[in-house]
Amino acid sequence: MILTPIPAETMPEALATFERLLAGKPLPLAAFRRIAATWPVPGGVDTPEQRAEAVRLAHAHGIGTLDEPPNASFMWDGAVIRTDVESTVIVHEVAHWLVAAPERRPLYDFGLGPGPETTLRKEARSQQKLTFEECMHEEQQTSLLGVLWEAELGQPAILAFLEQNWMERWERESTAAFFIRHVEELFTRGLIDAEGRPSTARAWADKRADERRQAA
User: What is this structure's pTM?
Assistant: First the structure.
């Protein structure tokens, strides 16, 4: 939920200000420009095509999926992502898989405790491996990686960026510093490249980008 909504008429100022606060930081600046380029949102949101592309993203990483809602069990049960949800949620869950330590991938909700879509909360809590602080940090990493994947897929990444409060108090240097820290960590972990692009499943992503350019 957005803590402080940014009116549409204020977005150009907010984006320009945030970009200025990233001056001298080429990697975070490149990552932010990829996200900002999806504003304004020209087409539909959570379309069938976007959902299908999010599922293809999971498969490109070798992640299993199941076309059913998660509200009877788990979003991730250690084997499949349930995909009868919004496209942005599917992408976010792929990002969770990428960020999680490999030994936690077979666990319910990646060993983070129950996610918002999970209803078997006791079972998910029984496999939680991280502290609250560690869970929060991993959620932040996952959030930003998911947003960058949405930008990579040509989806409205800016909406998730706003929804997940990356631009809360956008005029403050501390907000930009928080973004910079997480971008640089994703790069250090090899999850994005020096241009702010997600670095996994690159051959698939390049092919899909070429197909979108040819269709435009």
Answer: 0.97
